[in-house]
């Protein structure tokens, strides 16, 4: 199965279960990305080294992008309206979650690039 076909099947909820599954996957990816970005930003100025902050920011961007793409695919393929049990409302909520994760991850990457490299003295 190709990657686009897998994403479409996941967005439709056809891989695991009912129509809400695609929205739940999008919500989980967006929330995970948002949590990673928040943790990276809260620790970026303290104990975290520059390379770990950059890696965490890039992970948040990737998770947020995946959540947003899954949510948009679910919105495009969902039949019915809100309240029909197809997960339409969950997909609508997942879009800003994913976009927030992307924006906070970008901020973390920018902050890690602005800080001087951590040097350890031996």
Produce the secondary structure layout.
Blueprint: H1 3-12, H2 20-44, H3 50-77, H4 88-114
Helix pairs in contact: 1-2, 1-3, 2-3, 2-4, 3-4
Number of helices: 4
Oligomer: single chain
The residue ranges in which pLDDT falls below 50 over 5 or more consecutive positions are none
What is the beta-strand fraction? under 5%
Counting helices, strands and paired strands, the structural category is mainly alpha
User: What is the residue-mean pLDDT, rounded to a whole number?
Assistant: 78
Describe this structure in words.
Helices cover 74% and strands 0% of the residues. The mean pLDDT is 78. It is mainly α and 122 residues long. The longest helix is centred in the middle third of the chain and has 28 residues.
Brief descriptors of the model:
elongated, 0% strand, 122 residues, 74% helix, mainly alpha
Outline of this structure?
This protein is mainly alpha-helical. It has four helices and no strands. The model has no long low-confidence stretch (mean pLDDT 78).
